[in-house]
Design goal:
Length: about 270
């Protein structure tokens, strides 16, 4: 009996994986037809990095080489931005009835969201590669070797995955493309009320404390440590690795089930 159940569970898992990959290929085909949004998504973070690194100059309260502080911060900020493409895709599919057509087909109900999330993570990985290359081109270096470097990349992608599911849930709540821009504005306080480009020590005490406990700040500080770049000396900075896992885990625990439940209830 248990063997039969195991075979059935594996079959359902394989079916869901195949459906999710089909939806991922659909998103990749959209990239081929409309490459401009993808290119803009890759170029915009690079422009921000060059702007803060060369036009605006050094960050407040940062000792030593500002690039060593800035590049990990900008890599982390990149993981928070660019969600509007995924959010727009979700709302456009809702508005055009595409989701309803998929839901009427014999396919896994969650494949649409999983496919969209896989495509987003692929683009985010490409963005990280481009930003890292630009960082090396302007003189930034990671000093701790390959394994810590890969650990930092893992934390960055974990943070992106958490932000992604928050964005998907908000898109499902918004329901319309024209509302996405208003919702996307919520990302900006998360990005700029952080230690990505300035040290919390240079801020008023109350603001510096809030900045240090920002989930983005936790990931930025943790990846700085893994890259061998400067960090901080507060409790949050000393335990940044723990917080860089705990914050995304908490966000995923909240928004993943909310998004899945919202998606399942759309046609009810």
């Amino acid at each position: 009996m248990s063997t039969t159940l195991d075979v059935g569970a594996r079959a359902r898992l394989g079916w869901a994986a195949a459906d999710s990959w089909t939806m991922t290929r659909r998103e990749l085909a959209r990239w081929a037809r409309r490459p401009a949004p993808v290119v803009v998504g890759l170029v915009f973070p690079v422009m921000m990095l060059l702007m803060f690194g060369h036009l605006i100059g050094g960050g407040r309260g940062v000792d030593g080489d500002f690039k060593a502080y800035l590049v990990p911060g900008m890599l982390t900020m990149t993981m928070a931005f660019g969600l509007e493409a995924t959010m727009l895709s979700v709302t456009q599919d809702l508005g055009k009835g595409v989701v309803d057509r998929f839901r009427s087909m014999p396919m896994s109900s969650g494949a649409v969201l999983v496919g969209r999330s896989v495509a987003d993570m692929l683009q985010s990985s490409a963005g990280l590669a481009v930003m890292t290359g630009v960082g090396y081109a302007i003189g930034w270096r990671a000093h701790n070797g390959v394994l810590p470097f890969l650990g930092a990349v893992g934390l960055l992608l974990l943070f992106r995955f958490a932000m992604l599911w928050a964005g998907i849930h908000l898109a499902l709540v918004a329901g319309k493309p024209e509302l996405v821009q208003a919702v996307q504005i919520l990302v900006w306080p998360v990005g700029f009320l952080s230690n990505a480009i300035a040290s919390p020590g240079s801020m008023p005490a109350w603001l510096g404390t809030a900045v240090e406990w920002n989930p983005l700040s936790a990931t930025a500080t943790a990846v700085r440590g893994l890259f061998g770049n400067p960090g901080g000396d507060s409790w949050a900075a000393a335990h940044a690795g723990l917080l860089a896992v705990a914050w995304p885990a908490a966000l995923i625990a909240v928004f993943f089930p909310l998004a899945v439940t919202r998606f399942r209830n759309l046609s009810r």
